[in-house]
Amino acid sequence: MTAMTDADFRRAIRARTLRRNLWLAFLLLPPMAVMFIFIFLPMGSAVLYSVYEWDGLVRGDFVGLENFREVLFEPQKSKFLFNAFKNNVIVFVSVMVVQNGLALVLAMLLAREPKGYRFYQVVFFLPVILSTVIIGFQWKLFLNPVFGLVNNLLRAAGLDSWALPWLGLPETALPSMILVNAWHWVGFPTLVFLAAIHRIPKDYIEAARLDGASEWRIARDIIWPLMAPAVTIIVVLTFIGAFNWFEIPYVMNGLEGAPGYSTDMLGLLFYRTAFGSISATDSDFGAGSALAVLIFLFIFTVSLIFTRLLTAREIELA
């Protein structure tokens, strides 16, 4: 057998590199094509539509930033924009406190591996895999003021005064939806936090216990700081999800953000503006696209800021 020359060796390396690159291209091209068709192409279309005037489906003259000015500064439209934005902020803060706070508590309890803890993991995560539309319809029936399960249970417990039209009052409609969302999604941050806790070396916790540290101090000074990467993921995803909120308010209280726009969201406002509704029969693709661009820029910018700040905290703790 003849020895391989340097030229043969280089050719073999090039051939191997070429095969690897072709294989990587084969794996990456389909998801890249999907992202281009369903994400980047619609984003580019929205930017293009936002700088034109529209008469129904017919594109009119180029108007530059006029649609953006109309959405942001025209009183009749800006009041709906800032009301929806306020509601999205309320959703984000509430979900962070209620849903993610409860998830952290559940993760801490499951990390102690109580009897049947694997069963509880499945139970907590099960609602996450259900369709959001199904969840919305299910809880809309549960919260029905006449035959709903919630009010029937309250009446059976002798709490008739607590039996309210939960989705019909401005004071209770949005909090009810936030609780439904928390019930639906609490399992996801629970498992993320639980995975982060399991990554913490047990020697740290055992050493703290030997030094006489309480469970609260262990959680505050050891577990919480070392969970920083998981917290970054959950905060950013919660922010994106809160400002993309659409399915639950749409299914449970309709496109108008009833009652009295108390559950109106940026996503609902975009849909009404672009495609029309009962109160806004005329669709306006230009203003709707401008609103979509503004929502995207806001979410993208704030997500980057959150990621930068929270990642810096991770590095500092490390």
Description of the structure:
Keywords: Cell membrane, Membrane, Transmembrane, Transmembrane helix, Transport. The chain has 318 residues and is mostly helical. The protein has helices at residues 6-49, 66-73, 75-111, 117-125, 132-142, 149-156, 170-185, 187-198, 202-210, 215-226, 228-243, 247-253, 266-275, 285-317, and strands at residues 52-55, 58-62. A two-stranded antiparallel sheet has the order 1-2. Strand 1 (52-55) and strand 2 (58-62) form a beta hairpin. Helix 2 (66-73) crosses helix 3 and helix 11 packs antiparallel against helix 14 (285-317). The chain is flat. The mean pLDDT is 88.
The largest sheet is: 2 strands, antiparallel
What is the CATH T-level topology of the largest domain?
A: MetI-like fold
Low-confidence stretches: none
Overall morphology:
flat
What fraction strand?
Answer: under 5%
CATH architecture of the largest domain: Orthogonal Bundle
| SS element count, helices | 14
Q: How far is it from the N-terminal to the C-terminal residue, by CA?
A: 55 Å
- Quote the average pLDDT: 88
Structure summary, number of beta strands: 2
Count of domains: 2
Helix content: over 70%
Q: Structural class per helix/strand content?
A: mainly alpha
The SSE order reads HEEHHHHHHHHHHHHH
Looking at CATH, the homologous superfamily of the largest domain is MetI-like
Assigned CATH class of the largest domain: Mainly Alpha
Radius of gyration: 26 Å
The largest beta-sheet arranges its strands as: 1-2
